[in-house]
């Protein structure tokens, strides 16, 4: 088993000297692999899967043999961040390579919102299609509520899935009865509709229908892979509905896990991954397919036993501490990404767009993006990842924290917390009170749980990160300091 490990030598150290050091440590850089035909690309994006929800990231109690296989055959990233700790924003980051607030897609869309991803923004799918790829999407979109703001208008040749999250429906927590209280926002939600392209083809009426989603998407993914076993390279984006609440597993997995419904759902998602791996093997496509599995944000901890695990990181979804933003990421690309590799380099889902485009030989978007390609790092040609800085925006356009290398400066703000009240149970959420979050400095190398404020010990680091915060505010704005930002671009409105 080979690992590639990040070593913090100075930037001025020459590549030649670095290679000699690696060789002396028995970690000589892998020889450049022969470049095959452009790889097929499969990107699987889980919904609300926490950092600790699979065995490669520490899950106990739920077997995940296919995630384990992917970790053995690919590289596991341990400091991989979503663009924001909530679904719409994170998906905008993934598909545009931009901070969500740069493209006007911060937060989360509800059915009555008249905001959508601007069609002038180049998506990963659109750039790959320009380069000759066939492109398909399955699952949750959540970047626009109606045509022409649905996937087939953003570079996807086909789409089958939901326009938004599977909990945006008028059904109560029991999964069957309709919400009738007009004071409850859910009573205003429309029927949850499955779309084929722009056309409604089915409705998700109750929890039994929810239980079919993972299998529906998986079967379609397998058929797509088999149909493209030769010829034109393809890009398949599979955005699963689960393990976002309301949770439901099909009959073959229901009641199979000691962790209850959540465990059943994880087992089915693991099965889904296995079906895709098997389809690649059977179609003889595995050797030239770049497969990425990640999540849109951390676990929605208010749901307790219906939520996942942040793996010991602080807080979860909708919070800018690490448990909300740091997510699992596994990449398999035989002959390119190290088998059994582990990387602790700081990377983000914004970085996938330029990395995958580089792997495909596709052009970058003409507009400015925030992602950086880590293809040379993925292939072992460099020992360091390209990213040193990440900005934690949430709650509108509020800059809540800044990271530089291993240091994270949390800026004063109001934020939710899961730590002060008991979580919910059985699909009913608990409370998430709002608290005043003070400024603090955390050393994530020694304190991944963000428990020990060390700002008085490292005032020079605080000043450096405050300077980075000012740069972010000038470019992307900041609601907390009432700055608009010169580099923001508007969303589409209708």
Automatic annotation (TrEMBL):
Chain spans, region Disordered: 475-494
Where do the Sulfatase N-terminal domain residues begin and end? 39-362
Record's InterPro entries? Alkaline_phosphatase_core_sf (IPR017850), Sulfatase (IPR050738), Sulfatase_N (IPR000917)
* Pfam families registered for this protein in UniProt: Sulfatase, Sulfatase_C
Keywords tagged on the record: Hydrolase
**Which SUPFAM superfamilies did the record assign?**
Alkaline phosphatase-like
Q: Which GO-annotated molecular functions does the record name?
A: arylsulfatase activity
The protein's matches in Gene3D superfamilies, at most eight in alphabetical order, are given as: 3.30.1120.10, Alkaline Phosphatase, subunit A
Q: Which CDD domains match?
A: GALNS_like
Q: Which family does it belong to?
A: Belongs to the sulfatase family.
Q: How is this protein named in the record?
A: Sulfatase
């Amino acid at each position: 088993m080979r690992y590639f490990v990040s070593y913090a030598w100075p930037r001025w150290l020459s590549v030649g000297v670095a290679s000699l050091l690696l060789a002396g440590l028995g970690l000589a850089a892998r020889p450049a692999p022969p470049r095959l035909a452009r790889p097929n690309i499969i990107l699987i994006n889980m919904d609300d899967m926490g950092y600790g929800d699979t065995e490669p990231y520490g899950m106990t109690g739920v077997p995940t043999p296919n995630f384990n296989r992917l970790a053995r055959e690919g590289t596991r990233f341990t400091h991989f961040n979503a663009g924001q700790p909530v679904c719409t924003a994170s998906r905008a980051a993934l598909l545009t390579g931009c901070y969500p607030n740069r493209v006007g897609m911060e937060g989360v869309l509800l059915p009555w919102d008249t905001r959508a991803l601007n069609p002038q923004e180049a998506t990963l799918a659109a750039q790959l299609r320009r380069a000759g790829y066939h492109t398909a999407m399955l699952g949750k979109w959540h970047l626009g509520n109606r045509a022409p703001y649905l996937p087939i208008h953003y570079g996807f040749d086909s789409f089958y899935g939901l326009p938004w999250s599977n909990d945006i429906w008028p059904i109560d927590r029991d999964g069957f009865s309709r919400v009738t209280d007009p004071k409850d926002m859910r009573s205003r939600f429309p029927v949850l509709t499955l779309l084929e392209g722009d056309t409604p083809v089915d409705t998700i009426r109750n929890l039994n229908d929810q239980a079919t989603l993972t299998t529906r998407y998986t079967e379609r993914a397998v058929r797509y892979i088999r149909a493209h076993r030769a010829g034109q390279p393809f890009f398949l984006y599979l955005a699963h509905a689960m393990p976002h609440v309301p949770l439901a597993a099909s009959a073959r997995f229901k009641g199979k896990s000691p962790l209850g419904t959540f465990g059943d759902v994880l087992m089915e998602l693991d099965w889904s991954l296995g079906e895709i791996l098997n389809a690649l093997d059977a179609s003889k496509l595995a050797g030239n397919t770049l497969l990425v599995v990640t999540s849109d944000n951390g676990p929605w901890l208010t749901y307790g036993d219906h939520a996942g695990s942040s793996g010991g990181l602080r807080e979860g979804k909708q919070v800018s501490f690490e448990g909300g933003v740091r997510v699992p990421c596994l990449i398999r690309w035989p002959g390119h990404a190290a088998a059994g590799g582990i990387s602790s380099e700081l990377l983000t889902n914004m970085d996938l767009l330029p990395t995958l485009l580089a792997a495909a030989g596709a052009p970058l978007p003409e507009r400015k993006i925030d992602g950086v390609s880590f293809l040379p790092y993925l292939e072992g040609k460099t020992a360091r990842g390209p990213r040193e800085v990440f900005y934690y925006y949430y709650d509108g356009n509020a800059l809540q924290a800044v990271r530089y290398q291993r240091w994270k400066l949390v800026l004063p703000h109001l934020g939710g917390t899961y730590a002060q009240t008991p979580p919910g149970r059985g699909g009913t959420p608990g409370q998430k009170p709002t608290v005043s979050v003070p400024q603090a400095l955390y050393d994530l190398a020694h304190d991944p749980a963000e428990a020990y404020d060390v700002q008085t010990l490292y005032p020079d680091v605080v000043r450096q990160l405050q300077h980075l915060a000012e740069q972010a505010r000038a470019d992307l704005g900041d609601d907390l300091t009432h700055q608009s930002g010169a580099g923001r671009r508007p969303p589409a409105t209708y």
